């Protein structure tokens, strides 16, 4: 295990321990027996791994000292000179350090002054809870922010402590705790085509031509012996993706502020939940102004009509067939059904009618359309027509347009700003309730790659990466 892997595992163990204790603290009770055992085992593993990490670091430091003896500086100032003689100073005279960590002519001292923020992914903080407490204290009117907050901003963003978005940058290790959960099973974000940008705008080229187009874009032609090749050139467009600001407020009571462990567990659990749902909702229903453009509002999306005489607030097998057929075939392999869980009772009783030997329709020979979760080994998701079914509250209720969406989310592009999440607090929002608002800020853009529906080579049918069903009210 490398030092990086050790550090990641230590962070995981610390987060797990904090969450166990935080749950009991929030419910104002003692730890249950199984929780106490789990916590003790986690702490024991942490102590053992931390000892191994310290031993490994000592070994590396020792090796580096042997390889580079000229960089070793005594802990106490001495007459040993580690840089060339500077004007106005005699050889052998002790080096005088300045307040900014420089020596003599402005050269930085070696070994005597180090900036932990440059290498420490926690930027000097012992836990997420301690960092959050520092942000709270540093945000109070007239207070001077902790040096670690300013150092994190300098090393991560190359700017002053308070950036364009306001607040303080979240140290990489703590940011990863949140981002890992945003890439979890309940999130739609990891299913999208993810890009990153160092600015608040990203312009990218795209080609919306189809392989069967006979004009415009790149063409393929059969050429006779000695005949000239028909000229063609790419038909490229550009799309400008503007990153929108997403802010999530997490309330923190005064009691919670006093317990760094409980605060760490609370923030690392609640913040990702709120951010995750806000992004999911934007991917599905976003208006495109001040937020990502959602599937339901995109011109590329195809909406299928309900069947003749279909009951109100219903979903039937024929709807599945119709929606499946309107997904552009090459994209089906990565597609999934996004549903509101209100639709699940309709799915559980669904099958495709079959016919007996006389040709009479009967359910006795019907084909199974829906398979519940774990219906087959290794399938955590339910499947509909062989594709995963993902319940999400971002979808509308049963009967409304958007209650079920057949979506190839790899055809939906999202852009996140490099540096990820920032944070700030306000003690004024819920002042009368002794509660502080802890705010997480991130910038993200999103929209379908395609601006229009795909026309079939022959016929009038249109296809899409996103297929919905008309309202059945």
UniProtKB/TrEMBL annotation:
Q: List the InterPro entries hit by this protein, alphabetically.
A: Phage_capsid, Phage_capsid-like_C
For region Disordered, the annotated ranges are 47-108, 190-210
**Taking every annotated instance into account, which residue ranges of this chain make up the domain Phage capsid-like C-terminal?**
166-448
Q: Pfam families recorded for this chain? A: Phage_capsid
Asked if Transcription is a keyword of the record, the answer is no
Which ranges does the record mark as transmembrane? none
Compositionally biased spans, kind Polar residues: 193-203
Keywords from UniProt, A to Z, are: Virion
Q: Which GO terms describe its cellular component?
A: virion component
User: What subcellular compartments does it reside in?
Assistant: Virion
Protein name as annotated: Phage capsid-like C-terminal domain-containing protein
